[in-house]
Amino acid sequence: MTVSAIAQAAESKTGTVTAFPAAEAARAVRDTRPLRLITCGSVDDGKSTLIGRLLWDTKAVKEDQAATLRRDSGKQNDLGLPDFALLLDGLQAEREQGITIDVAYRYFATDKRSFIVADTPGHEQYTRNMATGASTADLAVLLVDARTGLLEQTRRHATIASLMGIKQFVLAVNKFDLVGYDRARFDQITHEFRELALSLGVRQITAIPMSALKGENVVYDGKASMPWYEGQTLVEVLELATVRSAQTVGFRLPVQRVSRPGESFRGYQGTVAGGSVKPGDSVVILPSGMVANVTKIITFDLVRNAAVAGDAITLVLDRQVDVSRGDMIVSIDSQPQVGLDFDAQLVALQAEGIQPGRRYWLKSGSRRQRVTANPVSQLDLKTGSWTQRTGLLPMNGIGKVHLSFDENAVFDAYEQNRTTGAFILIDPDTNNTVAGGMITAKRSSLTDLRSDEARVILSLPADLADQLMATELFSRRRDETDLRRMTSGEASQIFKDAAVDI
Amino acid sequence: MPSTLPETELHNPQTTKTPLDPHLKALENEAIHIFREVAAEFEKPVMLYSVGKDSSVLLHLARKAFYPGRVPFPLLHVNTGWKFAEMIAFRNDIVKKYDLDFIEHINPRGKAENVTPFTHGSALFTDIMKTEGLRQALDAGGFDAAFGGARRDEEASRAKERIYSFRTPEHRWDPRAQRPELWNIYNGMIRKGESVRAFPLSNWTEVDIWRYIQVEDIPLVPLYYAKERPYVERDGMMILAEDPRLELLPGETVQHGSIRFRTLGDFPLTGAIPSQATNLEEVIAELEIATVSERQGRAIDRDQSGSMEKKKREGYF
Fold this sequence. Notes:
heterodimer, A: alpha+beta, Rossmann fold, Elongation Factor Tu (Ef-tu), domain 3, 8-stranded antiparallel β-sheet, disordered N terminus, B: alpha/beta, 2 domains, 6-stranded mixed β-sheet, 4-stranded antiparallel β-sheet, 8 helices
């Protein structure tokens, strides 16, 4: 630290004592996972001020950073605080243009919880950045200026957030000091927003009147200015928000790599993407359809007796099966969809858009395969309605597409599982990520079959069936088959019934 | 299929260990996921190892990610020749203890042209010994992915960096042409000569690092703990006065005091802080009331406005 910087830091300490509480809050052990949130709003709504205020009032801004900030900003606002926007806009180009051009991640914590904020720009052309930030978020904070109320962009942001699977919204009615803390104004905006959110299927909504500039109802309450508001501050809402969990769905383990440290050991490494697993569970390896039982769940710390969604584990099976990177190990009684054709929604992220008939790489979990994505319709973000469009899906466009694969793909619907239902598209020429997508449904090829096509029902010992299903021929046409597992007693009953019918 | 663990790979699980809280567990899981993904997707990964606390956490996570196997890539230490002596001793112990593949690189220009932080200034010294040295080492090894311990909370330009940070064949980072990164799906497709820097600790904060070190009992270079040490005050920094290459300037005297370091780098460029914290609990207690960010002790971040972004564009980590 240079002498002058020390002097500045010292000066800042004595100059604005209120801005620097003497000690940071003691950080207790956290009993929850970090909450990931996204903030949506335009430059004019005071978004940078809000995030700056969050960082400032939770003491996430250190003195020397503040000193640099004061030096860079040169002037302070009339509350004696530096320009928070400068704290956030990390890149020189942005400082020059005065706008945020990409997704930035911010970190702050309270005694109860820690938070990761995806800070994304509000301009229309940056839908892609918002989609990126929203993909990992549990909650969206939507900012509006109390003077202007809901804008077209508010609808746009809310639509993208809900499309990306966010179920919790906070409406921050900012600059509330500028409307004289008028309660009727707050009620009016809240009512409008509630209608909008409900139309998108979002039910967990909290509206908060606030002044980010003055720090009212952000971390500290604003009772002095609005005694009528008895709700929570923004931070209180965030502390109590729920973190999404994929633990209630079926077990999913996308295999990242096969660990073979010695001849006698073979383990499948990956992060549990849904449900839970314990030794003794029967699992299916997809897309091959082979069956095995779990014998061990290994981690560095201990051999575990269970693993749940989110855990990075090494799984050991009871028999030699062909499992490689990109395969998915799933629970036998709750399987994802396997097929060649799926419906999806996607956001086009690059200037060249998504071109009908073009072959892309699709990556989902650890699996990468070739696909074509044919646009069907496009979302009008102004109105929230879908219009038919089979041509190119332009950058920042949100479209419904048909995905067609050369080889079987394995997905859950995004609604059911935000990991196994999500994918990106990669342009094979530029290697750039050109779309983010969410599976809505499998397109059934069985319905296309003529109903008089000849079918055969076989009843086989389970081990023989498993071997047959492991063959290349079977695996290639698995999409055309139906499979039910049952006891030999049940199977013989079916055959008996069938014989009677004949 | 037999499923016994190979005896040689089996370490002793600490059964009495305090379990990680859900917050640290989530960060650990994410880091392990990134390690495995990069190791599986790239042909020749390497892990940048700077011997500091973040590197120590990174190494610990790598061992966890690939257990019961070995860490499947080498560690690379880009040395400047001006590191604290205790760092080098600690590094050598760790490499041996954990049976790691290890590469050390020192830019030959340093010796040939006698580049020192005293004669060339911190900016040029760092550019030659670190940025250029790193490029040389990555090119020489033909590495297509390099793990680093950078965190997004460290510095403003890092806040926007991806977990997979794409680099041109010249090792350049273009902040405006970063690939979008959605969910936890990482795009590892590159052309020959291009590479990716991967940052498993992106979402960790300084407090997280220290708490994880505590719970996981990760060994650190002793310089992180306070001890009576000799130092000189220079440019507002407390410089450790142990290395004979440190020449006193007029008016400078060697003082003694209980000091420690919050970050470790080149001894002439890394300032100590006065401290009585002789163990991890005390270090964390000090940290939790600290109001100055950890990079404050680093001369290189403040050379010029936006200095870290400029270095990164040129290939600095």
